[in-house]
Amino acid sequence: MAVLIPFLTLFALWLLLSGMFDALQIGLGLVSCALVVWLAFRLELLGDSPRLHMALRCPGYAVWLAREIVISNLHVARVVLAPRMRLQRQVLRVPPSQRTGLGVATYANSITLTPGTLTLDADDDELVVHALTQQVADDLTSGEMDRRVSALEPRD
């Protein structure tokens, strides 16, 4: 039943959006919907999975992360193009507050995607991060990104 409802919903959407009801279109719709539901089942996106919860909350986080990437890009460009580069490189140990491996991986990857920071090592207890400037390090240690990634995870 956990597979039947998503399959029927996707197939109804396929029929509604295609507007074509010949045998080829219906066959392609059946195959496509079955493949998507099979992949979702294999990725544990169906049911009460933490991955489903994170997937539903990701669009808002992605918009925030894109904004942070742009801001960090501008900061790094300003530092690099300045006549005297004010680099204050440092390696930080940042404790993640996420409860799942997927949450920690999301946090570590988000740090690496943001210009001026690079996750060097990650485990459940701490992330080792290289920061290019003090401002970038301060932004990271403020905990805003950590809180936002933790908000993606399901609450018990």
What would the keywords be for this entry?
156 residues; mainly alpha; three-stranded antiparallel β-sheet; 62% helix
Structure notes:
There is one protein chain. 62% of the residues lie in helices and 10% in strands. The chain is mostly helical. The chain has a three-stranded antiparallel sheet, with helices on one face. Strand 2 (117-122) and strand 3 form a beta hairpin.
Present the secondary structure layout.
Elements: H1 4-18, H2 23-42, H3 50-81, E1 90-94, H4 101-113, E2 117-122, E3 127-131, H5 134-141, H6 144-152
Antiparallel strand pairs: 1-3, 2-3
Summarize this, please?
By secondary structure, this protein is mainly alpha-helical.
User: How many whole angstroms does the radius of gyration measure?
Assistant: 21 Å
H/E element sequence: HHHEHEEHH
**Strand neighbour order, sheet with most strands:** 1-3-2
| Average pLDDT taken over every residue | 88
The shape is elongated
